[in-house]
Design goal:
By secondary structure, the chain is α+β, with helices and mostly antiparallel strands. Helix content is about 20%, strand content about 45%. About 15% of the residues are buried.
Length: about 120
Protein backbone atom coordinates (compact mmCIF):
# COMPACT_ATOMS: atom_id res chain seq x y z
CA UNK A 1 0.00 0.00 0.00
CA UNK A 2 1.23 3.50 -0.75
CA UNK A 3 2.68 5.33 2.23
CA UNK A 4 0.20 8.20 1.85
CA UNK A 5 -2.74 5.78 2.02
CA UNK A 6 -1.28 4.04 5.08
CA UNK A 7 -0.92 7.43 6.77
CA UNK A 8 -4.45 8.49 5.83
CA UNK A 9 -5.87 5.26 7.28
CA UNK A 10 -3.84 5.73 10.46
CA UNK A 11 -5.02 9.31 11.01
CA UNK A 12 -8.63 8.50 10.19
CA UNK A 13 -8.61 5.52 12.57
CA UNK A 14 -7.15 7.63 15.39
CA UNK A 15 -10.08 10.09 15.35
CA UNK A 16 -7.89 12.95 16.54
CA UNK A 17 -9.98 15.77 18.00
CA UNK A 18 -9.70 18.88 15.85
CA UNK A 19 -9.02 17.12 12.52
CA UNK A 20 -12.06 17.26 10.25
CA UNK A 21 -10.80 15.76 6.96
CA UNK A 22 -7.72 13.93 5.68
CA UNK A 23 -6.85 13.97 1.97
CA UNK A 24 -4.07 12.43 -0.11
CA UNK A 25 -2.29 13.96 -3.10
CA UNK A 26 -4.54 17.05 -3.35
CA UNK A 27 -7.41 18.83 -1.68
CA UNK A 28 -10.67 18.59 -3.66
CA UNK A 29 -11.46 21.85 -5.43
CA UNK A 30 -14.67 22.33 -3.45
CA UNK A 31 -12.63 22.25 -0.20
CA UNK A 32 -9.75 24.54 -1.19
CA UNK A 33 -11.41 27.70 0.11
CA UNK A 34 -12.99 26.01 3.14
CA UNK A 35 -11.78 27.77 6.29
CA UNK A 36 -14.33 26.15 8.62
CA UNK A 37 -12.56 22.79 8.88
CA UNK A 38 -9.09 21.64 9.83
CA UNK A 39 -7.74 19.68 6.88
CA UNK A 40 -4.72 17.38 6.67
CA UNK A 41 -3.09 16.87 3.26
CA UNK A 42 -0.67 13.96 2.82
CA UNK A 43 1.65 13.78 -0.20
CA UNK A 44 4.63 11.65 -1.22
CA UNK A 45 8.01 13.28 -0.67
CA UNK A 46 10.21 10.38 -1.85
CA UNK A 47 10.58 6.63 -1.96
CA UNK A 48 13.99 5.00 -2.37
CA UNK A 49 15.25 1.41 -2.44
CA UNK A 50 17.14 0.42 0.71
CA UNK A 51 18.84 -2.51 2.48
CA UNK A 52 20.81 -3.93 -0.41
CA UNK A 53 22.07 -7.50 -0.60
CA UNK A 54 22.66 -10.14 -3.27
CA UNK A 55 22.38 -7.55 -6.07
CA UNK A 56 18.88 -6.57 -4.95
CA UNK A 57 17.12 -4.24 -2.51
CA UNK A 58 14.97 -5.53 0.31
CA UNK A 59 13.21 -2.44 1.63
CA UNK A 60 11.79 0.93 0.66
CA UNK A 61 12.69 4.07 2.55
CA UNK A 62 9.52 6.17 2.35
CA UNK A 63 9.04 9.82 3.25
CA UNK A 64 5.73 11.66 3.19
CA UNK A 65 4.83 15.30 3.69
CA UNK A 66 1.97 16.19 6.01
CA UNK A 67 0.38 19.62 5.78
CA UNK A 68 -2.21 20.79 8.28
CA UNK A 69 -4.54 23.68 7.37
CA UNK A 70 -6.20 24.79 10.59
CA UNK A 71 -9.70 26.21 10.55
CA UNK A 72 -9.80 29.97 11.10
CA UNK A 73 -11.83 29.86 14.31
CA UNK A 74 -9.65 27.43 16.24
CA UNK A 75 -11.14 25.87 19.34
CA UNK A 76 -8.08 23.71 20.09
CA UNK A 77 -4.38 24.48 20.37
CA UNK A 78 -2.60 23.48 17.12
CA UNK A 79 0.29 22.07 19.12
CA UNK A 80 -2.10 19.61 20.77
CA UNK A 81 -3.09 18.24 17.35
CA UNK A 82 0.51 18.13 16.16
CA UNK A 83 1.75 16.26 19.24
CA UNK A 84 -1.03 13.70 18.76
CA UNK A 85 0.02 13.26 15.11
CA UNK A 86 3.71 12.92 16.06
CA UNK A 87 2.88 10.30 18.69
CA UNK A 88 0.57 8.45 16.30
CA UNK A 89 3.32 8.10 13.71
CA UNK A 90 6.05 7.36 16.26
CA UNK A 91 3.96 4.60 17.84
CA UNK A 92 3.54 3.02 14.38
CA UNK A 93 7.31 2.94 13.73
CA UNK A 94 7.57 6.09 11.64
CA UNK A 95 10.27 8.68 12.32
CA UNK A 96 9.13 12.27 12.65
CA UNK A 97 11.50 14.42 10.64
CA UNK A 98 11.73 18.07 9.79
CA UNK A 99 8.95 20.47 10.74
CA UNK A 100 8.70 23.63 8.64
CA UNK A 101 7.03 25.63 11.40
CA UNK A 102 3.78 27.55 11.25
CA UNK A 103 2.86 29.97 8.48
CA UNK A 104 -0.21 31.87 7.41
CA UNK A 105 -1.76 30.80 4.10
CA UNK A 106 -1.77 33.98 1.98
CA UNK A 107 -5.06 33.11 0.28
CA UNK A 108 -7.19 31.94 3.21
CA UNK A 109 -5.32 33.46 6.18
CA UNK A 110 -5.34 30.06 7.91
CA UNK A 111 -2.51 28.87 10.14
CA UNK A 112 -0.68 26.00 8.45
CA UNK A 113 2.18 23.69 9.33
CA UNK A 114 4.18 21.19 7.30
CA UNK A 115 6.22 18.28 8.61
CA UNK A 116 7.75 15.08 7.28
CA UNK A 117 7.68 11.48 8.50
CA UNK A 118 9.53 8.48 7.14
CA UNK A 119 9.70 4.76 7.63
CA UNK A 120 11.39 1.69 6.28
CA UNK A 121 9.08 -0.83 4.63
CA UNK A 122 10.59 -4.30 4.44
CA UNK A 123 9.72 -6.14 1.23
CA UNK A 124 8.66 -9.74 0.99
CA UNK A 125 10.68 -11.08 -1.90
Amino acid sequence: MLAVLEAQNMINSANIAGIDNVYTFNIPSEMVENVDQTIVLITDANTNPSIYGNNDFNALSRTIEIQVFYKKDLDIDPETIEVKLYKLFTNDYWNVGENRGHTIDPDTQQITTTFYVNNLKLLNN
